[in-house]
Automatic annotation (TrEMBL):
Transmembrane segments: none annotated. This is Acetyl-CoA C-acetyltransferase. Pfam families: Thiolase_C, Thiolase_N. NCBIfam families: AcCoA-C-Actrans (TIGR01930). Residues 119-148 are annotated as: Disordered. The active site is at residues 86, 346, 376. Residues 5-259 form the Thiolase N-terminal domain.
């Protein structure tokens, strides 16, 4: 059977939305940096790329991938925009892998791009006179137990309550996540993944932004305990800015090719995409998505939890990885060893691809074989992918 292999990866550093280094660039600008970098790193001539699949979540619904292909002068490359909310960047990679494994496309660039600094404000027509009013497309219907636009309840608090997690449980995880992210930055583990972003400055010069800026040095449980609860009115509330994912800007992509293409062109694959899976859950249980998606993806690969060396479970809120660990019985010390959403940041549509990029590099750095990336996704979903380093 044809295998889907990853032959190159790239990501921007992750910026802090509205307050950080990438506020002057939009999702198109970020993709315009990452796509040529991942193409160049692949060694594949542009004429051999069949398609560019890019996830977007808040950019207004156009075919962002096609826009980027044309911007880059790659008119012959078709573009597909996908949206699976927090899982969009992962489903873009899955779509690429599926097409390659089916023997259709030979090479696909796939990833996601997000600028929460510059997300689109949409309007819709309401009433008999069709007056425009501000509108955001909701991924699930509004309900008191699962507000469509307040994930701190729908994901953060509901997940903690479901598993009986305390604020200390999630704050301790946040401290761990920041420490892991900072150790990875200081160790230079992200350097080869990152493509620096030239950011125009007000004085006309350009600054190269090359390091993730969201992790906070010196994050402590005592410090986090001082932060304001987002929902103090709820019983046993847990969520603060310190244990939630950030609002962030970034893009990430990988080049997926068939193993036959890679071999025929003398390209050395970095990893094989073994399997992937998505699940739906009741929106109020969104945070439990990874605990269902991971076993489903493992089953498809003919693997068990015990086979996996490393996991990244996105910290949409820190209750999500803690809940996943407890539900599945995973060893915490092999989870989020480079940090995740609460520390590195969660640029929604880019996150899934960023996780694949990071997992490929970390498996190879450690000489490990198998990794799983997983996240919950707005609307009541979970997604997971099994990656094997080569
Ligand atoms: C939780 C949320 C509302 C906080 O927004 P915010 O107030 O802009 O958050 P900030 O990151 O600026 O943090 C606010 C303050 O908390 C404190 N803080 C945050 N993290 C901290 C840490 N690790 N240590 C110490 N203090 C911290 C700081 O005082 C910070 O202010 P400062 O940056 O001026 O020092 C926002 O991050 C959010 O909506 N997150 C969830 C995103 C989401 O839903 N994603 C989808 C998931 S399904």
């Amino acid at each position: 059977m044809t295998e889907a292999v990853i032959i190159s990866t790239a990501r921007t550093p992750i910026g802090r939305a509205r307050k950080g280094s990438l506020v002057s660039l939009d999702a198109f600008d970020l993709a315009e940096v990452v796509v040529p970098a991942v193409l160049e790193r692949s060694g594949v001539p542009a004429r051999d790329v069949d398609s560019l699949v890019l996830a977007e979540a808040y950019q207004g619904g156009g075919v962002i991938a096609r826009n980027i292909a044309v911007r880059l002068g790659l008119d012959d490359i078709a573009g597909v925009a996908t949206n699976q909310h927090c899982a969009g960047g992962l489903s873009a990679v899955a779509i690429a892998a599926g097409s390659v494994r089916a023997g259709m496309d030979k090479v696909v660039i796939a990833g996601g791009t997000e600028s929460l600094s510059n997300s689109a404000m949409t309007t819709t027509r309401k009433g008999a006179d069709g007056q425009p009013v501000t509108w955001v497309s909701a991924s699930h219907p509004e309900s008191p137990e699962a507000p469509a636009f307040d994930m701190s309840i729908t994901v953060g608090e509901n997940t903690a309550r479901e598993l009986g997690l305390t604020r200390l449980d999630v704050d301790e995880w946040a401290v761990y996540s920041h420490a892991q992210a900072i150790a990875s930055i200081d160790g230079g583990y992200f350097t080869e993944q990152i493509v620096p972003v030239p950011v125009p400055q007000p004085d006309g010069s350009t600054r190269l932004f090359d390091t993730d800026e969201f992790p906070r040095r010196g994050t402590t449980v005592e410090g986090l305990a001082q932060l304001r609860l987002l929902h103090p009115e709820l019983p046993n509330p847990t969520v603060t800015a310190g244990n939630a994912a950030g609002l962030n800007d970034a893009a990430a992509a990988v080049t997926v090719a068939s193993d036959e293409y890679a071999e025929a062109h003398g390209l050395r694959p970095l990893a094989r995409i073994r399997s992937w899976a998505s699940v739906g859950v009741a929106p109020a249980l969104t945070g439990l998505g990874p605990s269902l998606a991971i076993p489903k993806a493992l089953d498809r690969a003919g693997l068990t939890l015990a086979d996996i060396d490393l996991f990244e479970v996105n910290e949409a809120f820190c209750s999500v990885p803690v809940a996943t660990i407890r539900k599945l019985g995973i060893r915490p010390e092999i989870v989020n060893i480079n940090g995740s959403g609460a520390s590195l940041g969660h640029p929604i549509a880019a996150t899934g691809a960023r996780m694949v990029v990071t997992m490929v590099a970390e498996l190879r750095r450690r000489g490990n074989a198998l990794g799983v990336v997983s996240m919950c996704a707005g609307g009541g979903m979970g997604a997971a992918m099994v990656i094997e380093a080569l």
